[in-house]
Every structure is written in C-alpha cells, then in structure tokens.
Amino acid sequence: MIRALATAAVALVCAVGVATPARAQDEVAINGTFTVFSDGRFAETNDSRHDEYSVTQTWTVTSTCTTYQDCAGRVVSDQGWSGDLVYMSGRWKVTRTVPDWEPCIDGTAHPGKQSFMFWAVYPPEPGRYVGWDKTEGPSGACGFNKVLDVEMPLTVTRIN
Fold first, then answer.
1. Is the pLDDT of residue 119 over 80?
2. Does the predicted TM-score (pTM) go above 0.90?
3. Domains by residue range for the chain, with CATH
4. 90: phi then psi, degrees, rounded to nearest 5
5. H or E stretch at 76
C-alpha cells in the first residue's frame, strides 16, 4: 500500500509539473495592443541621472510559446519600427537599431542599439509590465572610446 501511494504521489507531481504548450501559451505569451511609456524624467546616462524626453508609443505584440521558457514573437510600433521579441528568464526583450542616434561634433552620427526589457509587475496585474528602455551607442563613436548609454524606466500596459 505504501508503495502504491508513493507511485501515485510521484505520478501526480510529474503531471502537475509538466508544462504543456497550451498552458504556456495562455500563461506566458503576450498578445494585443499596448501603451508603452519610457519615462525620461528618471533617465540615466552613463550612470548619472538627468532628464531626457519621455516617449509614449503604441505596440502591437504577437507571441507564441512552446514551453514556459521558449517564447518568441514580434513587436510593431506606431513609430514606424518593428523588432523580434524573445522571452528569457521571466523577462521579455525586444531590440532594434536607431539610425543616427549619437550625433558627433563633426556632423556625422552613429546608430544606437535600443533594447526594451520588461516583466510582469508584482503583485500581478494582468496586462501590466515594468522594465527598462536602454539605448547604447558603439564604443569609439565620435572619437571617444566610451560607450554612450541612456536608460529610462519603462511601463507597458495592455489597452486591448
């Protein structure tokens, strides 16, 4: 009898712990339209706080998951760009290139790599995420061997 109970308990634990694609799709994947706000009032450049312009945009997000850790998708912004969306370690990330992001004194400009990293708020609020909007210029741009980076707090909120 003890052996039968132990076998049943192991079977129950295994059944509960199995991540099915349908459950992962329902619980992790994000799809819909979102308002995305990058708060320039709390921006940091090279670890020093200063003001930047705040940016509000609307994203259309589509994603699918095969497991709780294997999700991917696409973001389309109303600002004319799109990027691949990946899920890793409980966080969503989308990256894009911003042309002519870092202007130089000589009139040239270098692109920036903008990354949006966000995760569900705690305690959970369905359709609400927080994170960071970080843009980095290339090392050596404008003749300086120092990367320029700007990081701002980010909120992502479902609107439908």
1. yes
2. no
3. 30-158 (2.40.128)
4. 80, 10
5. strand 71-77
